[in-house]
Write a structure and sequence with these properties.
Order of helices and strands: HHHHHHHHHHHHHEEEEEEHHEEEEE
Strand content: 15-25%
Number of helices: 15
Helix content: 40-55%
Oligomer: single chain
CATH architecture: Alpha Horseshoe
CATH topology: Serine Threonine Protein Phosphatase 5, Tetratricopeptide repeat
CATH class: Mainly Alpha
Number of strands: 11
Strand order of the largest sheet: 6-7-1-10-11
Radius of gyration: 25 Å
Structural class: alpha+beta
Distance between the termini: 73 Å
Largest sheet: 5 strands, mixed
Shape: elongated
Length: about 475
């Protein structure tokens, strides 16, 4: 290797070490931090959960902090504060896109490709970006602001189109870069990797990692509530395509024109959303990675993210309205979307791991070759090699950051009820949870969130009238 390449690797190693030592981001265990936060929320202590989140995140402007904070504020029915956090998060995501950052960088920052992906600034996963806008729309609906919900719904469509275009470019670029480097890009080649966690029939049945039937069904509901049948139909139709064979979804599309044209009969069309659990956690584990050094295939240990099995109580199967049971339709699994997202991201993750492993192995090889020689560059190479050797032990950890406060599963039911007071009861394996709801207007959304044994309810301040 020529002296210029050695110097470049030396500078990268020193930069990575400096970043790691100054911020300690690479040794942070995000899952452990969020587990404590979710534990407090699951006990109904939302304030305590927010305080713990604050204590673990000194950077209050970070994207992931704003995502988690927005959900906790929503659990406390503080929709203005939730929207403030999520608006900041959405603006940060869009700013990255406008700058061409979100999917353009394949190998990450210098510290990322030398020591750890954890040293990269957090970039929201595809499904997180879409669910962010979907939950912003749900906040607006809880506040009775259907016009603002309409804007958020429109933004979800735009975001999905952006992601689809950028995903295609990224995949092609990763494959080309891996081919140039002679790198393996399939996680199936990692000896011992639990392939079934992200490669199974349910995960592979998803069209992609970011389109959810909930988002599109909600779009149809909002447009219908505003009397825009021509815009509601595509939302219901795509929800049907994403979750085929569901009578509730088919009925929404089939009866759309009649519902929009019908006169006000004093009833409210109620969409019940029941979310349960929390998004799956990522864990860093080491696996042998095949790389080529001096035209020889060798296997070196490298860290990769593994998605853990979802936890929490089984989702409820029924909601009772004024003594009448309604079956629930499973609409979206964020658990499966997260697994599909990791499957899609693994080629890029592996490419960065190969670059890190190759850089480390090459520097160590150069140090060994130059040991004992009177070479002015040998000391620098040996130093870089030592930095990487220490870093691989202490700091080389896969990125385990993900939006954990999202639910794991989302189901819906829909019913027409006379306006006024009603009793809604969510039946769970741990018992029944009843809540009174006052309905007004022609359309309304009631949102339940089951987090272990704790149930949070988002009821509308006012329904839409037209």
């Amino acid at each position: 290797m020529d002296r210029r390449k050695i110097k470049r690797m030396l500078r990268a190693a020193l930069l990575a070490a400096g970043l790691a030592l100054s911020g300690c981001a690479a040794v942070r265990n995000y899952d452990a931090e969020l587990q404590g936060t979710l534990d407090r929320a699951a006990l109904g202590n939302v304030e305590g959960a927010i305080k713990l989140l604050d204590a673990s995140n000194p950077d209050k402007k970070s994207l992931l902090y704003q995502l988690e904070l927005g959900m906790l504020e929503r659990l406390g029915n503080r929709y203005d504060e939730s929207q403030k956090a999520w608006s900041a998060a959405s603006a940060a995501v869009q700013a990255e896109r406008d700058a061409g950052v979100q999917l353009a960088t394949l190998t990450g920052d210098a510290a990322s490709y030398v020591i750890s992906d954890k040293l990269r600034s957090y970039r929201a996963h595809d499904y997180e970006q879409v669910m962010l806008l979907t939950y912003m729309a749900l906040n607006y609906l809880a506040m009775g602001d259907y016009e603002s919900a309409r804007v958020a719904i429109k933004q979800t469509h735009e975001r999905e189109a952006q992601i689809a275009e950028e995903r295609a470019r990224q995949l092609a670029a990763v494959e080309e870069e891996a081919k140039k480097r002679g790198a393996r890009s399939s996680f199936k080649e990692l000896n011992g990797y639990p392939i079934e966690t992200i490669d199974n029939p349910e995960v592979n049945a998803l069209r992609n990692s970011y389109q959810s039937a909930l988002s599109h069904y909600l779009a149809g509901f909002v447009y219908e509530a505003l009397g825009e049948a021509s815009l509601a139909a595509p939302g219901y139709r795509l929800a049907n395509e994403l979750q085929p064979g569901q009578p509730l979804l088919e009925q929404a599309l089939a009866g759309l024109d009649a519902r929009v044209a019908a006169p006000d009969d004093g009833a409210t069309d109620v969409l019940l959303i029941i979310s349960s659990g929390s998004a799956p956690a990522l864990q860093s584990r080491q696996f042998n990675t095949p790389i080529i050094i001096n035209n020889k295939l060798i296997f070196v240990p490298a860290s990769y993210p593994v998605m853990l099995a979802g936890g929490g109580a089984p989702p409820p199967t029924e909601v009772v309205v004024d003594g009448r049971g309604l079956p629930l339709t499973r609409l979206t699994s964020i658990d499966l979307m997260a697994r599909r997202s990791l499957q899609d991201d693994m080629p890029g993750i592996m490419l960065r791991a190969v670059i890190r492993s190759t850089t480390s192995a090459t520097l160590q090889y150069q140090a060994q070759q130059q040991a004992g020689r009177n070479d002015r560059g040998s000391g620098g190479v040996a130093l870089a090699s030592a930095i990487l050797a220490i870093g691989s032990i202490a700091l080389n950890s896969a990125d385990d950051r993900t939006w954990r406060a999202l639910p794991a599963e989302i189901a819906v039911a829909r019913v027409r009820l006379p306006r006024g007071e009603h009793k809604l009861t969510l039946r769970t394996p741990d018992g029944d949870h009843a809540v009174p709801v006052t309905l007004s207007g022609r359309y309304a959304v009631v949102d339940f969130r089951l987090l272990r044994r704790q149930v949070f309810v988002s009821t509308p301040k006012a329904g839409v009238a037209r």
